[in-house]
Amino acid sequence: MKPEHTRVPAIQPLAHEGADCRAVASVLSRVGDKWSVLIIMLLIDGPRRFNELKRMVGGISQRMLTLTLRGLERDGLVTRTVFPTIPPRVDYELTDLGRGLAQPVKALGQWAFEHQPQIQGARDKFDERNDKD
Q1: Which of 7, 22, 61, 119 would be 13's cystine partner, CB 3.0–4.6 Å?
Q2: Which of 2, 25, 19, 5 has the alpha carbon at shortest distance from 88?
Q3: Rounded to the nearest 5°, which phi and psi values hold at 112?
Q4: Higher pLDDT, 18 or 44
Q5: Cα–Cα distances in Å, from 56 out to 19, 59, 108?
Q6: 59, 70, 9: which is closest to 34 by C-alpha?
Q7: What is the chain's alpha carbon radius of gyration, rounded to the nearest angstrom?
Q8: Cα(42)–Cα(97) distance, rounded to whole angstroms?
Q9: Backbone angles phi, psi at 56, to 5 degrees
Q10: pTM over the 0.85 mark
């Protein structure tokens, strides 16, 4: 059994002066994309199988889920465990580093949920003003 899609592209850091800013931008690019955030939130409660994640993350393709999980694994946020069963069972789980990230991600998600009506109201007002132009 050999995993597929093992070549995970590194996310290019944003152009900015200073190596520290580039390094941080690279990390934020990985953990800030929508699929990574959703997967991290789903793994907070414990390990999950690939197909379970695919069912839970609506709209994600198998390839995108694979690439996202590989990227999270590459960055040390997720571990991948293969069980020698027929068919093979593969579980994904947050590492200690990933669990440390899970709390801020969860807080951000909670903030977005609580403020969604205000944000939608602001969007509606903005669109209404700009539709008149």
Answers
A1: 22
A2: 2
A3: -60, -40
A4: 44
A5: 37, 9, 20
A6: 59
A7: 18
A8: 16
A9: -80, -30
A10: no
